[in-house]
Design brief:
By secondary structure, the chain is of the alpha/beta class. The protein has 2 domains: about 280 residues, Rossmann fold (3-Layer(aba) Sandwich); about 170 residues, Rossmann fold (3-Layer(aba) Sandwich). The chain has 19 helices and 11 strands. The strands form 2 sheets. It has a 6-stranded mixed beta sheet, sandwiched between helices. It has a 5-stranded parallel beta sheet with strand order 4-3-5-6-7, sandwiched between helices. The protein is globular, with a radius of gyration of 24 Å. It starts with a helix and ends with a helix.
């Protein structure tokens, strides 16, 4: 017997798309009203997608069948949103929206972080000019994005984020930073991550060999496991904890965001939190297709599970957001790259598409050939700002924006030619996200939107976006290979011997 969700998926399979040009031409005003939203001063434009009234109705029925309202309530109330690990997912509490006790604890830990920053600025650690932030995955991608996007004109501190265990990554920073003026932040939720601790040990050795007095005194731990940081050697007074119910890839709002708070200043960090909180309020209160996170998920499911798109491309037409595609790769694929449902059954639909992208206009001269004339249907997302962050001729920004908007139009309309090599089929979808400016508030709201979009997609699919056991498998295998505690197949053994010159 088909469930209500099964019936919705079947209705989606039976749904037939119309041409984009026909959809836009039929009733432009109504389409813009239905598929363009403004939240937190960000314009989300889905008008150039194949989503229509019938598809919205089908996907709204799917959301109801999958208990979107109930799962959303569980998320914001601090209930068990992550059932495989029997815990909450309380990143929104870091922004002030969640279970009261969790919100209170997050605020107290933010205050502890602010006091640490005040101490650094007051000279408690000596004359600090550089911050070396060591982490990996969510402990690195978020801080790196924030500092790169918002800290370009800041002269407060030099911040370097190192995640790769390849020694060349640290070596490059050691050559740039002076040990006597460097502070090291070690970010690890569990404080057991092999790559992070190996890099931390090398940084400790670097400070020691440079003659820095009390090199361990230059270390700050950002972790949900303070006892392990103490065991490693960091004094309790230099540990910035965060709630264990905050997932790694959702943790930049916690003490993991310390590098951004230090480099940008506390006011900027608070503005970022408030931008995210504004998006939280919208996502928690808006219903159906009026909810921008759910509407975006409708578009995602339309392409992944009806029109056969295996990838989703994100292009930031703003140099400050060049790290956004990399950040979204982890957020989307680690969250929703699953193959079983909440009740442990095989997932009947496609899970998260492969997220990729780049920076416009560079990407136009590299990958847009495939987008315009290749055989793959790739939903494209453009992210652009109305106002630039430079004082050069306005022509720079005008050309950038013109390229961004014209690419969306060209993907949709195409250009017919009897010469097949010069024929552009068109009918290729795009979404445009338009910010007023790239500010802490706007970036906070944008990242929170992507978090909620991931959650909405997970609800529609009936999966858990908050565990990541596939990551753990790779870690276990690597550890076993390095320690010789796991017996591998002959091909793997031969490859290891060749790689290590044995």
């Amino acid at each position: 017997m088909m469930t209500t969700a099964d019936q919705a998926w079947q209705a989606l399979a039976d749904w037939q798309p119309q041409k984009l040009t026909d959809l836009v031409a039929a009733n432009p005003d109504a389409r813009l009203q239905a598929l363009v939203r403004s939240v937190a001063n960000i314009r989300f434009d889905f008008a150039k997608t194949h989503l229509d009234d019938a598809a919205v109705a089908i996907l709204s029925n799917l959301a109801a069948a999958q208990d979107f309202d109930g799962r959303r309530k569980t998320l914001f109330s601090g209930g068990i949103a992550n059932p495989t690990e029997n815990r909450a997912a309380e990143h929104s509490a870091e922004r002030g929206d969640g279970a009261p006790d969790s919100v209170h604890r997050a605020q107290a830990l933010h205050q502890r972080m602010r006091m640490m920053i005040d101490a650094i600025e007051a000279g408690a650690f000596g004359e600090i000019r550089h911050l070396l932030h060591i982490g990996i995955g969510g402990s690195a991608l978020g801080p790196d994005l924030l500092v790169d996007a918002l800290g370009r004109q800041s002269n407060r501190y030099d911040v370097a984020v190192v995640s790769n265990v390849d020694g060349a990554a640290l070596d490059e920073i050691f050559a740039k930073f002076s040990p006597e003026h460097t502070l090291v932040a070690v970010a690890s939720k569990t404080f057991t991550t092999t790559e992070t601790l190996m890099n931390a040990n090398s940084a400790l050795q670097w400070l020691d060999e440079a003659g820095v007095e009390d090199p361990l005194g230059r270390f700050i731990a950002l972790t949900a496991s303070p006892e392990r940081a103490i065991e490693w050697g960091i004094d309790e007074t230099r540990i910035l904890p965060f709630n264990e119910s905050v997932g790694g890839r959702y943790s930049l709002w916690s003490s993991i965001g310390f590098p951004a708070a230090l480099a940008l200043g506390w006011d900027a960090f608070e503005d970022m939190l408030e931008g995210a909180a504004e998006m939280d309020r919208h996502f928690r209160l808006a219903n159906g297709a009026d909810n921008i996170g759910l509407l975006a998920a409708f578009v995602d499911q339309l392409y992944a599970n009806r029109l056969g798109s295996q990838t989703r491309a994100v292009f930031a037409y703003d140099e400050r957001l060049r790290l956004l595609p990399s950040y979204l790769q982890q957020l989307e694929m680690e969250s929703n790259g699953k193959s079983v449902t909440l009740d442990g059954q095989p997932l009947a639909q496609q899970s998260a598409p492969i997220t990729w992208g780049g920076v416009g206009t560079d990407a136009q001269h590299a990958v847009f050939q495939l987008l315009h004339q290749g055989t793959h249907l790739v939903p494209v997302e453009f992210v652009v700002a109305r106002e630039p962050d430079h004082l050069l001729d306005d022509a720079h920004h005008e050309t950038l924006v013109a390229n961004c908007i014209s690419q969306g139009a060209a993907l949709m309309t195409g250009r017919k030619s009897d010469d097949g090599a010069r024929n552009y089929p068109g009918d290729r979808p795009s979404t445009t996200i338009l910010l007023d400016q790239v500010t802490p508030h706007a970036l906070g709201a944008l990242i929170a939107f992507y978090e909620h979009r991931v959650f909405a997609n997970a609800v529609l699919l009936g999966i858990n976006p908050f565990d990541q056991f596939g990551v753990e498998l790779g870690k276990d295998m690597a550890k076993g290979l390095a320690e010789g505690t796991v017996e591998f197949d002959p091909a793997t053994q031969a490859l290891m011997a060749a790689a290590l010159g044995e």
